[in-house]
């Protein structure tokens, strides 16, 4: 379960990481280095997205990843997270 939740988080944060590294360290890496970093991060994110799509859409398994609680009252619970099921993906 931990590896799947890590995969879903990497889908979102790998492109962000690649663009941040290219933005902050682009001068040191050069144009070829930033192209390699950003392309690698987006490629891995794409591969993980295809794996997640295959798990959720044809596999018909719902996936909910809770990131952090937001509002917790007696009978009301709202939290930050990601939700994917068959109705959302296709």
Automatic annotation (TrEMBL):
Compartments where located: Membrane
Keyword vocabulary terms for this entry: Membrane, NAD, Signal, Translocase, Transmembrane, Transmembrane helix, Transport
Leader sequence residues: 1-22
Membrane topology type: Multi-pass membrane protein
Main localization (coarse): membrane
GO MF annotation terms: NADH dehydrogenase (ubiquinone) activity; NADH dehydrogenase activity
CC annotations in GO: membrane
InterPro entries xrefs: NU5C-like
Spans through the membrane: 34-57
One GO biological process term: ATP synthesis coupled electron transport
Annotated family: Belongs to the complex I subunit 5 family.
Protein name per its UniProtKB record: NADH dehydrogenase subunit 5
Organism: Dendrobium nobile
